[in-house]
Amino acid sequence: MRVAIPKVTRDLLDSAESHRPIAKALEEGRGREAGLLLRNHVETISEYLKRAGSESDSGVQRTFRRDMEDAKEVQQAFFPEQTMSIPCISCETFYQPARGIGGDYYDLLALQRDRWGIAIGDVSGKGIGAALIMASLQASLKFQALQPHLKLSTLIGDVNRLVFESSPTNIFATLFYAEYEPAKRLLNYVNAGHNSPLVLRPKNGSCEIFQLPPTGIPVGVSAGSQFASANFQFEIDDVLVAYTDGITEAVNRQQELWGQQRLEALLKSSSRKTPKEIINAILEQVSTFANGQPQRDDITLLVMRVEAGCDD
Predict the structure, then answer these.
(1) Exposed, middle or buried: residue 36 (CB in 10 Å: 0-12, 13-18, 19+)?
(2) Which of 85, 150, 157, 219 is most buried, by CB atoms within 10 Å?
(3) Are residues 70 and 139 in the same domain?
(4) How many whole angstroms from its chain centre is CA 36?
């Protein structure tokens, strides 16, 4: 027996119509509303599929796959254009979800007073659910960052509250957000429970590594969480490597983790390479280590090298 599709469900399965209000909410910085729209959209589709039961309905399956492909395209639009560039910075990024869509996130934002916003985050979980929260986080952060503000701690506190209000219980996101001043080579940042980005400083044939450790807990855990900020003074030729735990938690056939130690060892020998070469070296070693094991988590990399030419 075929299950009739209610008109409201048919409307939601029409991806062009269903994604339009979501995209509009994201564009206008209404993160909580975008998250709720996305969640309602997916929940409606899922409910229909449950009602369809085990019936082989190729039409529904094709519609669902097409809708997920459209959702993937919508998510890809969240990420910055590859042509965006920060003065006196060479930058490369890489993103690969474990499934068609995922919960990792990065962004580059042109801000007022010749500053640049740099973000990387990781929502707990993966797949559709993580993508919903990621959309809310991305929209909330972008909206707050583009408003006049004095303290990063206040900014991330506001983002935390918005994510908390639009997320189910026990869902959270790690987030590293920094504002960079090219003229001073100064990075002001908040690390909300994210993997510590690494700064490589090549010196006389060796390489010193600095960590930018967490200054607070992940966003979305508690509405009243407090977030401290910190600074890092870059030098010319320093390299910033930010990543999500899909890199360090890649596993081999013996279920061993690739780990932080292997990452740092690789980076020490790669500090003179270009950002693209560093990303390629990381991905190659992770792939060799995994030796055919499936990717378990979303993978994101953001690598930036400080160049001369922007001094006061």
Answers:
(1) middle
(2) 219
(3) no
(4) 19
Position 311 in a domain: no
**DSSP label of 78:** T
Pairwise CA distance, residues 43 & 69, whole Å: 17
Residue 236 above 90 pLDDT? yes
CB 236 within 8 A of CB 306: yes
Same domain, 133 and 12: no
| Residue 312 is assigned to a structural domain of this protein | no
Would you say residue 88 lies in a domain? yes
The per-residue pLDDT for 16 is 41
**Residue 28 belongs to domain spanning:** 7-75
Q: Do 65 and 213 fall into the same domain?
A: no
Range 153-157 contact pairs with CB under 8 angstroms and sequence separation of 24 or more: 153/190, 153/226, 153/227, 153/228, 153/229, 155/190, 156/190, 156/192, 156/216, 156/219, 156/227, 157/225, 157/226, 157/227
Torsion region of 186: left, alpha or beta (phi above 0 gives left; psi -120 to 50 gives alpha)? beta
Q: What is the average pLDDT score of the chain?
A: 81
Q: Which is more confidently placed, 41 or 306?
A: 306
pLDDT band, residue 229 (cuts 50/70/90): very high
Whether 2 is in a domain gets the answer no
- Residues 147, 294 within the same domain: yes
* Residue 279 and residue 154 in one domain: yes
For residue 190, give the CATH number of its domain: 3.60.40.10
Element (H, E) at 73: helix 58-76
Predicted TM-score of the model (pTM): 0.78
Place of tokens 């996305």: 38
Q: Which residues of 227-259 are buried (b: 16+ CB within 10 A; e: fewer)?
A: bebeebebeeebbbbbbbbbbbebbeeeeeebe
Residue 216, pLDDT > 90, answer yes
* Pairwise CA distance, residues 29 & 278, whole Å: 33
